[in-house]
Amino acid sequence: MWASTHLTEKGALLAAIADLLEYLNISDAEGAIDVRNHYGRYSTEADGDHIEIPWDPSELRKLKSSTLYEIFGQWSELTCDNDVGYHVEIIKTMIQA
Question: Do 12 and 91 form a contact (C-beta atoms < 8 A)?
Fold first, then answer.
């Protein structure tokens, strides 16, 4: 178990998403598709097409914190029923010098 501190909310979100992607073994687009297919979530009921969840770190860095929270929620939902006790959480705190 480990914890990290980030000076920005966006930095914390990017680190949490990176950890989730590492846990899910996602390092490329094919890996992201494999994970979505494995868990069978994020598809539209009408046609079965999967909803794209961003995974590329360079693309994630371009997004705003509000969008990153949504992405964090989508990826973390895939880990909620794991058997190894994996859990990622973002806790807002204020650091004073």
Answer: no
Chain position carrying tokens 């996602």 = 26
Structure tokens at 84: 């190894």
pLDDT by residue for the chain (97 residues), tens only, comes to: 677 888 899 999 999 999 999 999 999 999 998 888 887 665 544 555 667 889 999 999 999 999 999 999 999 988 887 777 888 888 888 878 7
Pull the structure tokens for residue 55.
């995974």
**Domain segments of the chain as ranges:** 9-77
Rounded to whole angstroms, what are the CA distances from 10 to 49, 50, 68?
30, 26, 8
Sort 1 into a burial class: Cβ within 10 Å, 0-12 / 13-18 / 19+.
exposed
| Residue 91 one-letter amino acid | I
What is the rounded distance in angstroms from the CA atom of residue 48 to the CA atom of residue 50? 6
C-alpha closest to that of 35 among 47, 46, 51: 51
